[in-house]
Amino acid sequence: MTSDIGNDNTRHSKIAKQIATVFGLGSVFPAPGTAASAVALPIAWLIVHLGTAPWQGRGYLLLAGLIVFAVGAWASELYARAESRTDPSECVIDEIAGQWVACAFAPVSLLGFAIAFFLFRAFDITKLWPVNLAERLSGGLGIMLDDIVAGVMAGAVIAVLVHTGIL
Prior knowledge:
Layout: H1 11-20, H2 25-28, H3 32-48, H4 54-83, H5 93-104, H6 110-126, H7 131-135, H8 139-163
Helix pairs in contact: 1-4, 3-5, 4-5, 4-8, 5-6, 5-8, 6-8
């Protein structure tokens, strides 16, 4: 099926496609979700270092993840509708938001971000409860929310690892 969004001359549709696919990243790689999560990491690292204290930087990252969630829900809704699919695999803005939420709970270190990456991907790919419940929602909200839930679940595991001194 050919996408109408690429031929649509409306500015909003073109912007939505770029946002939903993270400027085409979702179409380039064989594992687009994992690729988008990997791309999210260095950007998360930069956002975290905007703060003068680690807690402040992680707060900025959480806020950025929530902003991407809101914008991504809009863009994903338009893109999925234009593609006539419920959750197009090339729509990877949800991975950016979810990865940033997971990293917001992690220690600001390479190890902390690596664990956030692997935990987030594990929860996102396996779709364990309650991730699978969020995925059942329709439209852009459903596309985005399952990754936010996976990010929160990864963050909860990280918080336990930090609290127990394992991380």
